[in-house]
Amino acid sequence: MDAIILQILNGLDKGSAYALIALGLTLIFGTLGVVNFAHGALFMIGAFCAVTLSRILTLSRTTIDETQTDFLGNPLKVEVPYAHDFFGPVVGDALIDWAVPLAILFSIPVMLLVGFVMERGLIKHFYKRPHADQILVTFGLAIVLQEVIKYFYGANPIPTPAPDVFRGSFDFGAMVGFEANQIIYPYWRLVYFAFAALIIGAVFAFLQFTTFGMVVRAGMADRETVGLLGIDIDRRFTIMFGIAAAVAGLAGVMYAPINSPNYHMGMDFLVLSFVVVVVGGMGSLPGAVLAGFLLGILESFASMSAVIDLIPGINQVIIYLVAITILLTRPRGLMGRKGVMED
pTM of whole model > 0.85? Predict the structure, then answer.
């Protein structure tokens, strides 16, 4: 039982990332009808927003510390972060320590801007083009963005630690009644799951309970009729593209302490996220979230050593096998709607 609970926790961790990226993909497809293969790059940019803020906060100057000496008795040169000069040592150290959570505030305007520029500068020209054209141009854009990140940040992963209070692990098993040290789980992975649940809930609440969201949902169902009512639905869809980009970026920001950001991390998640979208049902937001957590949990169980010993390599293909099985039995996915991507 403890092994099962541990794998479920691991699955929720992976599923959170899949669900957040797939949610943004589905928002874009459902509103604009665009298959955006650059969405994984938005996840990557979000992660590097955390890296960038961390580097900004740790910028420092060299000074002489008379209270410290080397073995010859000479005063030592030390690096003093500029954050200490502006905010004082206590607040400055706190800002550096909490760089990743603070990057949430930093990344939101950045990702909204990136989303608006992508949609207005490139993607709007491909609304009425075949999906194959959309895939090619957005995939090319993803490669360009990947190479830009590689040029400025290098090819190696960049460790981006979580705040000190969330480092390490805790005894989850003892908390739920198992023996001590049976289920040890990292704090930050639980934080990531809680954060993902908050973002997913906020997106659904925004679409369900706000006037803006209601108009967007109406436009997703019948764009022409909403336009005939005098509503600028294109402008609202552009804003939704920015929101979808922000969701992907936030997913990347909070994932940085789990998987050190690198220039190809967007591609690593992109294909899996599209599988999640297809399994959940093209254009279905609840389906994307459900499929994300379902496939994350299945992948986690398939990664158990006992399963791999029984079926070698199953952890590498389990998601695709499940996708094939579901699409053979339910061609529109778990919660797909009739007419979406159907001629």
Answer: yes
